[in-house]
Amino acid sequence: MTSPLIRFALAASLALSAAPALAQTQLSDGQILQSLQGFTQTAPAISAEQLRQLVQKHMAQYPGEALTRPNLALDLDKLPQINVQVQFRLNSAIIDPASYGTLGSIADALHNPILHGYKFIVTGNTDVTGPRDYNLKLSQARADAVVNALTTVFNVSPNRLEAVGLGEEVLIDAKNPTSPVNRRVQIFTVGRVGPTPAPIR
Amino acid sequence: MRGIRILLAATLLAGSAVAANAQTISYGQAGALLAKSCGPDINKLCPTVNLGGGALQACMDAKISQVSAKCQADYAMATASIAKRDAAQDAIGQTCNADAARLCQGMIPQDGNLLSCLLEATNVVSAACNQAITDAGYR
Fold it and tell me: What pLDDT score does A169 carry?
């Protein structure tokens, strides 16, 4: 028979391990703001169109099975960025209502004066379950849905956001290509928007 | 004496009413409110419709008789809150213009440095500008 104390300790440790997982899903606007600031001109310039071309080239160059081909390496490490878990309905670009709060928090960060003069690329990523072409389309539709919600519901200016579907080409857990951690939305700060404002007089 | 006390109380009440009225909630809170009060209705009535572009609102409007009273009220509240926060953020430029010219002269206003300047000078910033910063959620 198991001692009540051991059972209690086990329950306590389970409770502890549950806490960080919860904290991770509830991303605050402060964390997003922190992650997306600090853009420097030394970062390589990248456009949405360039990213789409890199994906197309990678898919043409490595037509094999998911496990036999390399991950697409995008040179984006120098850009301020954040991974966001946005829940979508299965095989669809419909954003689950459970993620409306997360979208709002992204908007809070983008509306902060610290980020107000910057533009961003929002990428969609799937895992390798399902056909590769389908995943590319789905990831683009999902990134589009996020940008559409941010610009039409949460009043972020449309000239600050572009959506790019990366399909299943950029896995964060390449050893477990079907892992749900690969399904994610990323936001990158990609440059300033508009002219430099005049000094205050 | 009694008249002044009453007047004072009335002023305090009016003041707090104005403050409460100007208070805005964050976009994140508005989104979470929508999810909490309307999530079940959305899942049931409009499961294939997206939030953006007015599609969700149109779908829910079309099925308004089936939408719970709580969702109807909070959907309106979330939408109003978003508009209010947006207006508050837009208003800062105008409201804080004189304060900025007085306290942050010569600064190129980018990367949040103007806000930092005004926040550091909170004690000498006009009440209207301080209130505008609070309403915008920038404090």
Answer: 96
* B125 touches B99 (CB < 8 A): yes
Does residue A124 sit in helix, strand or coil? strand
H or E element that contains A190: strand A184-192
- The strand pair at A118-125 and A184-192 is best described as antiparallel
* pLDDT band at residue A26 using 50, 70 and 90 as cut-offs: low
pLDDT category, A18, cuts 50, 70, 90?
Answer: very low
- Name the residue among A93, A148, A154 with its Cβ closest to that of B82: A154
Report whether B42 contacts A123 (CB < 8 A). no
Please judge whether A201 and B101 are an interchain contact, meaning their C-beta atoms are less than 8 angstroms apart: yes
Where does residue B4 fall: left (phi above 0), alpha (psi -120 to 50 degrees), or beta otherwise? alpha
CA triple A83-A103-A14, angle to 5 deg: 60
The rounded distance, in Å, linking the Cα atoms of B38 and B79 is: 13
Q: Tell me: pLDDT of A200 over 60.
A: yes
- Residues A168-196 pLDDT 10s: 999 999 889 999 999 999 999 999 998 99
Residue of A37, A93, A98 lying closest to B39 (CB–CB): A98
What pLDDT, in 10s, does the model give residues B88-121? 999 999 999 999 999 999 999 999 999 999 999 9
> Does the distance separating the beta carbons of A152 and B31 come in below 8 Å?
no
Instruction: Lay out the sheet containing A184-192: strands in order across.
Output: A81-84, A184-192, A118-125, A161-165
Q: DSSP letters along A38-102, please? A: ---TTSPP--HHHHHHHHHHHHHH--S-GGGSPPP--S-TTS-EEEE---B-TTS-PBPGGGHHH
Chain A residue set in contact with B, beta carbons under 8 Å? 28-29, 37, 89, 92-95, 97-105, 107-108, 111-117, 145, 148-155, 196-201
Residues A149, A104: Cα–Cα separation, whole Å: 9
Minimum distance, in Å, between the CA of residue A10 and any CA atom of chain B: 32
Cβ contact, residue pair B112, A114, below 8 Å: yes
Is A191 in contact with A84 (CB distance < 8 Å)?
A: no
